[in-house]
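input
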Amino acid sequence: MTTLKERLGQGDARKAVVRDACEVLDLEVADKSGLSGVAIRGAYSIVKGIKPGFVADVVDGLLDDFLDALDPIYQEGKAAGQPANKHLADNADRVAEKLLSITDERAQRSSRAVIRKTYDKLRPSAKKHVVSAAPRLGQLLERHAP
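output
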């Protein structure tokens, strides 16, 4: 059985996944409303302003770990005959915990104070946002690893 990282973690497939993941992130941020939405959009704007291509670089840097973390959930959905978007949505809490454990560790290691400070401000509400993004993330996997 081929892993997600083997299928999506190299060459043109990787470039396409990083590009689409950035689009998913943009859509998720744009969908946020209310005061928390304002805070999230503001923080995302700060992060995007660090340097051109920064978000894509971060996504690319996290991709291998994310693919490794998502692979068992993705594979169990495939074994059950479920599309990735449905299975990831049905298991959104697990997806969020796996992905956030990676970003928590990376944020703590960041040498950029603005990244750590922004992450720490947003982390308390992060799980609900990752949970809400699970269907789009599943759609991304379905597109690239049918």
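quick obs: The radius of gyration is 15 Å.
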